[in-house]
Amino acid sequence: MSSNAITIPGVQINEKPWVDTLHEWVTTVDHKRLGVLYILYALLFLVIAGVEALIIRIQLMFPHNHFVSPEVFNRLFTMHGTTMVFFMGMPILFGFANYLVPLMIGARDMAFPRLNAFSFWLSALGGFLLYFSLVGANGLYGAGNAPDVGWWAYAPLTARAFSPGHSTDYWTLALLVSGFGSIGTAINIIATILCMRCPGMRLNRMPLLAWLNLVMAGMVLIAVSPLTAAQMMLLIDRYLGGHFFDTQAGGSAVLWMHFFWIFGHPEVYVLIIPCFAFMSEIIPVFSRKPIFGYPVMVAATVCIGFVSMSVWAHHMFSVGMNSYANSFFTITTMAVGVPTGIKIFNWLGTMWGGRIQFKVPMLFCIAFLFQFLIAGLTGVMLGSAAFASQLTLSYFVVAHFHYTLVGGVVFGVFAAIYYWYPKITGRMLNETLGKWHFWLFVIGFHLTFDLMHIPGLLGMPRRIYTYEPGRGWDTLNLLISVGGFIQAIAVVIFVANLVISYFKGKKAGNDPWDAWTLEWSTSSPPPAYNFASIPVVASRRPLWDLKHPEDPDSRYE
Amino acid sequence: MWQIVIVAFLSTAAFAAASEPTNGTNIFAPASTPAKLVAHLSGFVLAITGIIFVVVFTLLVYSVIKFRGRAGDAGREPPQVYGSTQIELAWTIIPILIVVVLFLATARVIHAVQDAPQPPGALEVTAIGHQYWWEFRYPKLGVVTANELHIPVSDPANPTPTFLTLLSADTDHSFWVPELAGKTDLIPNHPNRMWMDPQRTGIFLGQCAQYCGVQHAKMLLRVSVDSPEDFAAWVRGQQQPAVQDASAAAGRRVFESNACMNCHAVGATPANGRFGPDLTHLMSRVTIASGAAKNTPENLRLWIQNPNAIKPGSLMPAMQLDDGDLDAVVSYMETLR
User: What pLDDT, in 10s, does the model give residues B114-141?
Assistant: First the structure.
């Protein structure tokens, strides 16, 4: 398995002019470059949507605050939600899938490199369209610029009667276009994993990251299609006189809710499953043990993939479904907790008996486990339709899903960035700055999102630009906002670390973490062709076999 | 006749003044059967999830501390363990049992809340959500009011629950008074039902919980739970036609010759608009603008002059009245007891 980059002695690589470099990046079909583009694009939107969140938190620091107007506030939470889900969460996870999947299965690129580039640029165009609304959306006098219908855009608020101008159209088109991009990427990931594995890599020897991304891509195919269809129906309503969701003409608002959440709930698993994948790669390496219960982990993920398709209406426990429907969606929602719990137990089993190294990626993983445990348990509460009749649409649910999406996805993404940055750039991220980033982010996160559950229990609805004093919400909201700023400081440190380490970081070498999967067998950063010769594997941990020829995994599998 | 009106007004006014809000919006302080059932269930769910949390949290902390890498073990790998079927079975079956228990407990409450039959003594109210205010109609009593729902207290021995039919005139809204019941949405073309049987009198607060547009935040709700006598008196007062006070004739003329009457109704006058709140008994309400401001003459004047000053994004236009007309309309409003 010789898979280092080939260096030809005596050949000097000349510095290229920056225009050539830019041209290469824009026209690239290399899965690694596209992966990096996805990640950078997503980090840009993380910062933009993060600033939006900070403005929201300033407005909510005090009751009857006048920092922004109600119109601006409504645009802010719409843009924050839409951006974070569609233009931060999905792209950054697609970026890692793009970068890592071919490397981890011993392939030279994705199955369809040009489709890959096309999908990325479609997603990029989607984000651009969403923010172009700030310039282009003022259609009629008095119409707002950015979309202000909320990220789930319930009908009939999106009808032209309630949403004049073009802001809703930009929202629709942004999701439509980036949705095509997501479908393209999903097809590509599935085809790559099924067809491009190196010799010896049977499905049951695939790294869990590849398995989980396979499930994620399958879910994208099934879930994004109804969203795309619904966006087209909305466009037909708004421009061609359709009445799908136009309640004034007999359309159905509830129909939109079903369409949206048939997409929307699998979507949260689309976001969290790749983070489960990061956990399943990083925790074993820093515990110095193989993943506990590999077949069960695969089965639990596939199970989540199927069951999560049947839980969408738990977002609709207040819309007046009958008691049978509410009971059905209660049992399916709680059932998802079982495979999710199994995964947490298996990570715990992986750490059990290991020698845990508290490097920054592992710190983020441990915090992920604690937070995802709590997020899962509040999810069970929200899954109970009767309890949810109080909790849904309140700040409790806001706290819950930020617990999964920040405490889960963002922590998972940070772990992944600290873990694979050396592979991508060839340099280590600074450990000290990383620890500052980690601890500040943990403190800020818990200050914000632990406390955020309480105003929900005290009756504070979500999406309100201001609130009445004297309901027990005031101090809590102030502290929640303070926590938001602590998180922002942590992210500034993180971005500084990314930049400083790129130029001054310690050289990483091929395998800085003494890890076991194929991407660590090639150089950092890997050459365009990934592997000089295609590797052949005999177990789930090919590099373990290489490092421990006296006790290879292949003997036990 | 006049005496009845005055007595009714005085009793309502006295009641309104005497009962400043004493109830919060805490879901764990229920005062009505649906909210109580949910609060009990939530106690059970919290206990079970709490136990799960403590167990898993302890295991996590234990393994992080116990199995931390130490300086001495550089280079040596721990025993490589790949899994265990028995353990996997255990942590699959135990969660399944917990899920079954939680589901059964939930299903029981869903059934008790949603499938409760409507007793003959129940009060029927139709609640209609409008962009940023609530319309309440009592079809059997012939009463129409806005933003402040009056319902009778319900004696558990002889229950008089209130059954709400929930409709919407425009976008989605959600009726949420946390201490009386869980929330139910008001969706156009999709009538919903909910009920509550408050077991103590007082003011209960809530607000719209489903994002409905610019002023979703100030679509507040007040539910006044009255004793049977107070409620009967309130109904009698609301059933009267509007007071015709000759001293406010000028204001009434302004009201009826401007766009006011296109949107607002005043009983037994030509004003019959349905787009805004019914003003027949405006002064029997404690707040205006769906709870955004106290119902004082100054606030009323500011509201009529420029609604955006109190509630930016409100659909009521600024009427651009001159000072004389403004004062006249305000004094007309003050006679609508």
Answer: 999 999 889 999 999 999 999 999 999 9
pLDDT digits (tens, 9 = 90+) for A139-193: 555 567 899 999 999 999 999 999 988 899 999 999 999 999 999 999 999 999 9
Helices A167-195 and A90-104, packing angle to 10 deg: 10
**B209 contacts in A (CB within 8 Å)?**
318, 393-394, 461-462
Q: Which of A72, A67, A76, A115 is nearest to A94 (CA)?
A: A115
Is residue B86 within 8 angstroms of chain A, CB to CB?
no
**Cβ contact A210:A193 at 8 Å:** yes
Superfamily of domain A31-555, CATH level 4? Cytochrome c oxidase-like, subunit I domain (1.20.210.10)
Bin B47: left if φ > 0, else alpha if -120 < ψ < 50, else beta.
alpha
**Prediction ipTM score:** 0.91
CB within 8 A of B50, min separation 6: which ones? none
Q: What is the CATH number of domain B246-335?
A: 2.60.40.420
CATH class belonging to B21-65+84-227: mainly beta
Long-range contacts of B204-207 (CB under 8 A, 24+ apart): B204/B23, B204/B31, B204/B177, B204/B179, B204/B180, B205/A459, B205/A471, B205/B21, B205/B23, B205/B24, B205/B25, B205/B177, B206/A459, B206/B25, B206/B175, B206/B176, B206/B177, B206/B178, B206/B180, B207/A461, B207/A464, B207/B176, B207/B291
Mean pLDDT of A282-287: 96
Torsion of CA A263, A264, A268, A273, to 10 degrees: 0
Give the CA count within 13 Å in the CB-facing half-sphere of B74: 2
Any CB–CB contact under 8 A between B45 and chain A? yes
Angle at A190 between CA A184 and CA A194, to 5 degrees: 145
Tokens of B172: 């989605």
Q: Dihedral angle at the C-alpha atoms of B227, B233, B235, B241, nearest 10 degrees?
A: -160
Start and end residues for every CATH 2.60.40.420 domain found in chain B: 21-65+84-227, 246-335
Q: Which residues pair with B134 in a beta bridge?
A: B129
Residues of chain B found within 8 Å of residue A287, distances taken between Cβ atoms: 67, 78
Interface mutation target, options A345, A363, A460, A554, chain B, most CBs of B under 10 Å: A345
Predicted confidence band at A134 (pLDDT cuts at 50, 70, 90)? confident
**Which H/E stretch holds residue A232?**
helix A208-239
Q: If you average pLDDT over every residue of chain A, what do you get?
A: 93
Residue A364 CA to residue A367 CA, distance in Å, equals 5
